[in-house]
Amino acid sequence: MKFVVLLTVLLATTAAQAKITDVDLKRDTQVLSSDAFEGRKPGTPGGDKAVAYIVQRMQQIGLKPGNHGKWTQDVPLVTITAKPSTAGLTIEGGAAPIALKFVDEEVIWTRHEQPHVALKKSPLVFVGYGVVAPEHNWNDYAGLDMHGKTAVILVNDPDWRSTDLKGDFGGRAMTYYGRWIYKFEEAARQGAAGAIIIHQTEPAAYPFSVVVTSNSVAKQHLATTDKGASRTTIEGWITKPASDRLFAAAGLDFAALEAAAARSGFKAVPMGALTASASLDNTVAYAASQNVVGILPGTSRPKETVLYTAHWDHLGRCPADTTGDDICNGALDNASGVAGLLTLATEAKHDTPTARSQLFIAVTGEESGLLGSQYYAEHPIYPLGLTAGGVNMDVLSVKGRTRDVTITGVGKSEVEPMFTAIAAKQGRVVDPEASPEKGSYYRSDHFSFAKVGVPMVAATSGTDVIGKDPAHDGKAYGKSLAADYVANRYHQPSDQYNPDWDWSGAVQDLEAYYSFNHALANSSAWPNWYPAAEFRAVRDKSRAGL
Questions:
Q1: pLDDT surpassing 90 at residue 482
Q2: Among 116, 139, 173, 404, which residue's Cβ finds the most Cβ atoms within 10 Å?
Q3: Environment class of residue 209 by beta-carbon count within 10 Å: exposed (0-12), middle (13-18) or buried (19+)?
Q4: Most confident of 204-218, 323-337, 471-485
């Protein structure tokens, strides 16, 4: 079936067909985010309890086990816990040693699965944005031998300050080159001994407190055969004030170098005689977490699948807030998304069976770097070439119904006009992503599937809230709520269930998600990436010969 035919099918599909309510949304969110689940960290009793609850709910709904008769897919994890007392970073070579304080000025860790690691007098090199992008004729490591050295790196892309979407790296919109994950990966590929990112709130898209809560406790990764030896010895972040001390000690002008790093042809700059030393004592523990997988088999083409995904994990125990609460409950992030997944599974079970199979996956390890979805993408239960697409849910809206909806990573694939048609049937418009420089597209589980060629809807409720603001400025009201969440609850113990939340916007979004996936599951179409998208080639390869 051609794309235009599928679009016609979708236009004929109305969100009113879905009969979604907020009853199960409220219950499942409240249960999963309760203190009894201790923040749902993978590999902990709270994480195990979350898996058991989701399996129980999928059984109640009437799904079938999705992993060849099993409800779960094991995901091998390693947890590396550094003793805080050993997590200091010392800079020498200036007029006097600079001892950066763990949590206050720096957060460091290691991916090496070893009880003790050390970085000893590693020369510092400012490598700008740390990008190697041949397609843009860009190489911040050109001519460098980074072995034994530590890269000092800016976050985001070189053109993040742009006011539009034009530029070598998409202008204001962040690319994968701008993500912190990429920065560490590239530094390792270059043979660096250490990699330190300079935190700045605007290009990072979150305050340093988020870095602390995400990285100052036990770090989880996918267990690897080389036990992490291919990564740098030390990874981490430092605050902007801490970096100012370093550049001053090296006699370098940070502002001038930051400006130079944004221009093509930038050459990395050794930071004088400055060296970094760090020593970490670690506890290393191996465990298997689980993706929870349920399926509704298709009627005529059961080997073809559409996906519903949401991550069940959160941060577990985290630094205590001023009240002494040290459980990061993750009510919105992402107990709400799992509740949405289960709600849509209920709707699909009660609806007429679809031609293609519908796969419901609650993935683990998203907060540690999309680990569960990465593992599924690298070890798919169902062939990726026969996976048509899907939707991913990460933080549902509790601010009320909106006149708009936002698609993240816009301009990449054919699922976008399809979902736009669904939104139009709801009377909603698709607004441009308000802050494309935050790289939201690369921060949730749909990205793991994109990397293996599967296009998925990555949409969020808009900001133009209906009927809530006395000044009748719905957008200002919606933006203020979003900003308040990021500043005061995101990745903090205060992300707790609130009985006063308005779930009507979540229902509105779930209706759209369901209409999209249900139509896709009844079609013969294979939405693709646009020709210029970085994921087009892998999609074409996976579909070749089918």
A1: no
A2: 173
A3: middle
A4: 323-337
Distance, in Å, from the CA atom of 532 to the CA atom of 405, rounded to the nearest integer, reads 24
Residues pairing with 284 in the sheet: 80
Secondary structure string (H, E, C) spanning 244-260: HHHHHHCCCCHHHHHHH
Of 103, 132, 137, give the one whose Cα is nearest residue 210.
103
SS3 294: strand
Q: Compute the average pLDDT of residues 414-423.
A: 95
Q: What is the Cβ-side half-sphere exposure of residue 43, based on CA atoms within 13 angstroms?
A: 24
Question: Six-digit token pair at 330?
Answer: 């993750």
Q: 449: Cβ–Cβ under 8 A, 6 or more apart, which residues?
A: 307, 309, 373, 377, 387, 390, 392, 455, 456
> Taking CA 362 as the corner, what is the angle to CA 401 and CA 479, rounded to the nearest 5 degrees?
30
Distance CA 293, CA 68 (A): 10
Mean pLDDT of 344-358: 97
Q: How many CB atoms lie within 10 A of CB 223?
A: 16
Return the structure tokens found at 245: 């001390």
Q: Give me the long-range contacts of 479-482 (CB less than 8 A, separation at least 24).
A: 479/434, 481/399
- Count CB neighbours of 94 within 10 A: 18
CA–CA gap between residue 165 and residue 518 (Å, rounded): 33
Q: How confident is the model at residue 511 (pLDDT cuts 50, 70, 90)?
A: very high
DSSP state of 366: G
User: Which sign, positive or negative, has the C-alpha torsion 524, 15, 340, 434?
Assistant: positive
Beta-strand pair 269-296/72-82: antiparallel
Are the beta carbons of 82 and 309 closer than 8 angstroms? no
Please give the angle made by the CA atoms of 344, 54 and 292, to the nearest 5 degrees.
90
Mean pLDDT rounded to a whole number for the chain: 92
- DSSP structure class, residue 333: I
DSSP run (H or E) holding 212: helix 208-215
- How many CA atoms lie within 13 Å of 235's alpha carbon, on the beta-carbon side? 23
Residue 6 pLDDT greater than 70, yes or no: no
Spatial contact of 269 and 130, defined as CB atoms under 8 Å apart: no
**In this structure, are residues 452 and 377 in contact, taking their beta carbons and an 8 Å threshold?**
yes
Place of tokens 């660096």: 192
- Tell me what pLDDT residue 9 has: 56
Residue with tokens 């055969």: 225
Residue where the block lists tokens 């994890």 = 77
Least Cα distance to 132 among 182, 174, 193 occurs for 182
Closest by CA to 217, choosing from 80, 112, 111, 121, is: 80
Residue 376 has pLDDT above 60, yes or no: yes
Q: What integer pLDDT is reported at residue 165 of this predicted model?
A: 80
Token reading at 531:
């020709």
What is the chain's length?
Answer: 546
What's the pTM value of the predicted model, to 2 decimals?
0.82
* Residue 274 three-state SS: strand
